Design the sequence.
């Protein structure tokens, strides 16, 4: 039987998630709970510290403990989350074991930690929703690490799915290097607002095959 998993982030494509199998999320993913009828959250991974470098508190421990109880959700933390005697009920991330197994410390975001953990636990299928990596900071600082761990998944024969709207595993020009830049302008500009621009010179009427191929990689 296939061991299947959903990784849930908070970017716009999260709403494509069907919550039909085990779900692991980044901190904050639980905030969509009131917008989904069949919401579930089995694990939440926290890699930030309790306070930011500026002294801002990242977490409300009482709220998070309540979420854990309401959904029978396990927290996996890289660092202890506590203020005095108030502590988040959690289990430590197995950093040493995972680094030893995969011989890598390329962790550029929380998603990297979750992907590595899933591979460590031998999951066969991993679906990503709400992990779009489309913002400026994510694209330049975090996208490479997530794609690295997706590559590690592919080399192990793990089936992966990435939701529409994510830019993961898509070249910056949307076309493999060395190929003609052709894309479907109806998907980029459905209302024809850019007609007459140079973009239309290298477009094609047929839908690009990049995303379906990318989504079915194993």
Sequence:
């Amino acid at each position: 039987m296939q061991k299947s998993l959903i990784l849930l982030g908070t970017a716009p494509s999260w709403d494509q998630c069907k919550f039909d199998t085990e779900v692991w999320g980044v901190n904050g993913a639980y905030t969509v709970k009131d917008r989904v009828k069949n919401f579930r959250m089995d694990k939440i991974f926290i890699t930030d510290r309790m306070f930011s470098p500026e002294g801002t508190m990242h977490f409300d421990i009482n709220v998070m403990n309540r979420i854990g109880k309401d959904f029978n959700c396990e927290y996996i933390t890289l660092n202890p989350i506590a203020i005095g005697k108030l502590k988040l009920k959690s289990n430590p991330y197995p950093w040493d074991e995972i680094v030893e197994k995969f011989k890598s410390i390329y962790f550029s975001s929380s998603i990297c930690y979750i992907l590595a953990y899933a591979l460590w636990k031998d999951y066969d299928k991993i679906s990503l929703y709400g992990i779009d990596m489309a913002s400026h900071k994510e694209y330049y600082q975090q996208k490479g690490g997530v794609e690295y761990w997706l590559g590690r998944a592919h080399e192990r024969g793990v089936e992966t799915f990435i939701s529409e709207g994510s830019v993961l595993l898509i070249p910056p020009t949307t076309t493999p290097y060395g190929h003609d830049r052709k894309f479907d302008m109806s998907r980029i500009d459905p209302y024809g607002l850019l007609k007459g621009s140079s973009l239309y010179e290298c477009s094609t009427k047929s839908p690009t095959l990049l995303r379906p191929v990318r989504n079915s990689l194993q």
Observations:
- The CA atoms of residues 81 and 88 lie 6 Å apart.
- The two ends are 17 Å apart (CA to CA).
- The longest strand covers residues 4-8.
- The chain has two domains: 4-167, 170-218.
